[in-house]
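Inverse folding, one chain.
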């Protein structure tokens, strides 16, 4: 075991130190640390009073740049409803709704374009952050609640086998706390945090859970010193697996749509990616030090889409399609929106602004390269991806 000291001064540290010193082994996993940094009810980043998304925040999302993502998603959600023969109660479950922009744009588009759909949907938001939940309620309730039922809850409160509809998320899984893993001296170790002399200390020790080793077996990754460099570091997102299991339990019939940045397992755990994918975002700049700006910066990791597919199959979810956001949105009509810019009805300034908004969503070096994974439960084989606009 090797120890590495990190000396910091930050209010959240006192709570972290207290938790460490009250733990049986006087240490916590990086996953526990990341959870505190992001979601602590008092000091966590996602419970901050400041704006964290958009120009005044630390990062942009597809939903914060324009209304297009939400509107085009609404097209796909409507088609999901059509394919399932327009059930009377179709639940739309958005998980991690941020500032509420995506919800707003989806609901606004549905109400204005699909009156038949409007009367058959229930909108459910799963939100871990109390501050973000308050912002969502302020934005959505007065505008839409008298037309479409909108509720806020958590996954545990939803009865099993009760959802016919679509569960979906945009840039949610990347913020789930991860275990940090190191491959050194031909063995896997885990990164922990301890406290000494009022400083954080990084400690390398044995793997905390058997589930981590099972994870690599299931996704087909074997670490070998002939291929992997010494002190190779990466991540394992066990919370995403538990989340996937919960969704499968709640979903009676329908879809799970996940949009996020990430890789398949062979690229995620490639030997050349020796420092993993962990990134921190602070004031629109990114770096890889999660031990600064504690409680004031975002900490994210790329998504392992292979893990979502493999575990989904174990939990009863079938992978219907996997594509990139650029192709997904083009299939839903983003190309038509680009073509409309040449209709002569807009000023040059408006045309340039709209073109930039739309190109941002399909830029292959940015948001356009996001993965879009569609999984289903209890959908017949005849209701396949070739019927779906976003996956053609």
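Residues assigned per position:
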């Amino acid at each position: 075991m090797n120890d590495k000291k990190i000396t910091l001064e930050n209010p959240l540290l006192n709570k972290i130190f207290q938790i460490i010193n009250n733990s049986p082994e006087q240490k916590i996993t990086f996953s526990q640390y990341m959870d505190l940094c992001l979601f602590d009810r008092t000091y966590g980043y996602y419970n901050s009073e400041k704006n964290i998304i958009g120009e005044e925040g630390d990062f942009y999302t597809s939903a914060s740049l324009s209304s297009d993502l939400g509107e085009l998603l609404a097209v796909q959600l409507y088609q999901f409803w059509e394919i399932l023969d327009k059930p009377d109660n179709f639940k739309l479950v958005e998980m991690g709704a941020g500032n509420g922009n995506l919800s707003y744009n989806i609901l606004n588009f549905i109400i204005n374009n699909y009156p038949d759909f409007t009367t058959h949907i229930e909108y459910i938001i799963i939100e871990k952050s109390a501050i973000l939940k308050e912002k969502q309620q302020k934005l959505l309730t007065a505008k839409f609640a008298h037309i479409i039922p909108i509720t806020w809850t958590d996954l545990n409160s939803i009865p099993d086998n009760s959802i016919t509809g679509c569960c979906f998320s945009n840039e949610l899984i990347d913020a789930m706390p991860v275990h940090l893993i190191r491959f050194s001296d031909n063995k896997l170790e885990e990164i922990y945090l301890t406290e000494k002399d009022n400083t954080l200390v990084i400690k390398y020790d044995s793997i905390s859970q058997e589930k981590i080793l099972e994870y690599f077996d299931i996704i087909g990754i074997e670490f070998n010193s002939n291929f992997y460099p010494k002190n190779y570091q990466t991540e394992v997102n066990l919370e995403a697996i538990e989340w996937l299991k919960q969704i499968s339990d709640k979903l009676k019939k329908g879809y799970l749509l996940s949009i996020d940045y990430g890789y398949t397992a062979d690229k995620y755990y490639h030997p050349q990616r020796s420092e993993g994918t962990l990134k921190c975002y602070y004031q629109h700049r990114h770096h890889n030090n999660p031990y600064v700006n504690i409680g004031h910066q975002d900490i994210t990791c790329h998504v392992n889409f292979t893990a979502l597919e493999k575990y989904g199959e174990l939990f009863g979810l079938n992978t219907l399609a996997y594509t990139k956001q650029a192709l997904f949105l083009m299939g839903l009509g983003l190309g038509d929106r680009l073509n409309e810019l040449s209709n002569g009805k807009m000023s040059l300034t408006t045309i340039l602004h709209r073109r930039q908004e739309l190109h941002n969503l399909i830029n292959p070096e940015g948001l356009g390269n996001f993965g879009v994974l569609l999984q289903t439960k209890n959908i017949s084989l005849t209701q396949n991806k070739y019927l779906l606009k976003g996956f053609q």
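The longest helix spans residues 68-83. The domain at 3-332+369-379 is CATH 3.40.50.12710 (Rossmann fold).
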